[in-house]
Amino acid sequence: MPSEQHHQADHYQQLGDQALANQDPEQALSHYTAALRIFQEIGEHLQEAIILRNMARVYIVQKRNQEAIALYQQSLRSQKALGDQLGVGATLYELGTLLLAEEKRTEARTHLNQSLRIYRILGDRAGEALCLIQLGLAHIQSKEWNQSTATLTQALEIITDPRDQGQALGLLGLGYLQLGRYHDAIQTFQQCIPIYQILGDQQSEAQVLNDMGGVYAQQQRWTEAIQLFQESLHLRKILGDRAGENQTLGNLNLAYLQQGLWEIVEPLLKIHLDLQKELNDRIGVGQTLMNLGLVYAQQNKPELRDHYFQASLTQHRATGYAFGEGQTLMNMGIMAAAEDQIDQATTYFEAALAVLPPQSPQYQQVSQWLGG
After folding, report:
1. CA-CA distances (angstroms) from residue 195 to 62, 170, 203, 240?
2. pLDDT tens readout for residues 78-103
3. Smaller CB count within 10 Å for the chain: N or C?
């Protein structure tokens, strides 16, 4: 029969779970620490390992990822020593997911594959599906598009949880997009929308709308793309998701720029510029300044054009973003050449070649101009 100390530790653990669910990580950590101390005193090593894993989750919320990794590893050692296969599988999965977020893909895959094997041995289909989703994400991050779609398709065959299904479908749509399977991508994203609407998950719905807009933009189907970007932007404004607004507004502006809708895009670029400054998106600021220069070039406003190009160049150099610097120099060279300022254009193009990646289309374009 559990001792009084065991009951007390259980109580602290429950309080910790409640605090974490209520998004109070400091209180959660305090309760978990109290529970851990008691479980260690009475030699309840299995419960001790569970508490360590819970504390790792708190550290993730607090963005203390390295400390979370250390706690997961400590929990894992205990669970392996105790022969707790289910606990080992769960901790390997959570640790692999965190390592993937930290872009430690090799370690992440190792842990996720180990977790997958355990879940399959135990016949835990839900755990198996979760591992497959994260492995699919790992393939996407490594630009292994065929492997990603195959893995995510496997996951969808066994998923029963709607939220997991939505996540897997969203990732699968991205894989299809990169493979140029636009019809499949659109169909897959369309399956996500009602799932997230039923769940009331507007943040995920907004992301899917944004991604689906990207599929139409790839096909230059601008009307559909713009409508979806606007729907995504509307949701993100309601949610106060400023980072999401930044992403979708950038895509919307690009759609307008590609169509040469200068009067429409000019005020939106200025709104975007203010948002990027608010978010300290320094690379984005440089790109938007360049785009404003392009707009004013098309509107035959050379003073404003030169002002924004120069501001873009300064910004990219300050952030060390060489590709952005090269893009801006290339555009400055194109404008100078159009005005028959050949020496100035050559100077800009040579400076662009010095910073652009040799494999980039921009490098090839500049090389051809100088060679011609």
Report:
1. 29, 11, 12, 22
2. 999 999 999 999 999 999 999 999 99
3. N
Counting every residue written for the chain, the total comes to 372
Q: How many helices (H) and strands (E) does the chain have?
A: 19, 0
Cβ atoms of residues 44 and 2 within 8 Å: no
Q: If 0-12 CB within 10 Å is exposed, 13-18 middle and 19+ buried, where does residue 103 land?
A: exposed
Q: Tokens for 372?
A: 């011609």
Q: How many CB atoms lie within 10 A of CB 269?
A: 21
Tell me the per-residue pLDDT of 272-315, one tens digit each, with 9 for 90 and over.
999 999 999 999 999 999 999 999 999 999 999 999 999 999 99
pLDDT tens-digit map of 184-195: 999 999 999 999
Query: Which residue, among 284, 282, 227, has the nearest Cα to 256 in the 3D structure?
Result: 227
Could you tell me the two tokens for 191? 């399956």
DSSP states along 191-214: HHHHHHHHHT-HHHHHHHHHHHHH
d(CA 218, CA 216): 5
pLDDT above 90 for 3: no
